[in-house]
Design brief:
Layout: H1 3-15, E1 30-39, E2 42-43, E3 48-52, E4 64-67, E5 73-79, E6 81-88, E7 103-107, E8 111-113, E9 116-118
Parallel strand pairs: 1-8, 1-9
Antiparallel strand pairs: 1-2, 1-5, 3-4, 3-6, 6-7
Length: 121
């Protein structure tokens, strides 16, 4: 076996075959996320933001929602780790490609700033 073949074999063995699910958070610690909801560059003045921290290790977790303020801002507490994020409201009415769009945000300890920009840029 050549040196390069041995190096490749070691890398493959050490990294595994990738049949395990990706690492996800099991934390029950919450943090605050604040931001603004922008659709096509304009702040929305109503609607709802939903953060869902459920994953295969937190199956019992349900999404949390908060109303969007008149200036387009929101503030919510949710569990640390990757959250599925979506906006629900009249600003998306009639736009099939944008309705139901789900984004992803990795919530860290402390205060988090996350502007929800639809469509994503």
């Amino acid at each position: 076996m050549t040196t390069s073949s041995l190096a490749v074999a070691i890398v493959v063995i050490s990294t595994g075959c990738g049949d395990r699910p990706p690492s996800v958070s099991t934390s029950r610690t919450e943090a605050t996320v604040r931001g603004k909801v922008l659709i096509k560059g304009k702040a929305v003045d109503r609607g709802k933001v939903v953060f869902d921290a459920a994953n295969h290790l937190r199956k019992d977790v349900t999404g949390k929602s908060v109303d969007v303020n008149k200036d387009g801002t929101y503030s919510i507490t949710t569990l640390l780790g990757v959250n599925s994020v979506r906006y629900e409201g009249p600003a998306l009415a009639g736009s099939r490609e944008l309705e139901g769009m789900s984004l992803s945000y990795d919530v860290k300890e402390g205060d988090n700033l996350y502007d929800i920009i639809i469509p994503p840029q």
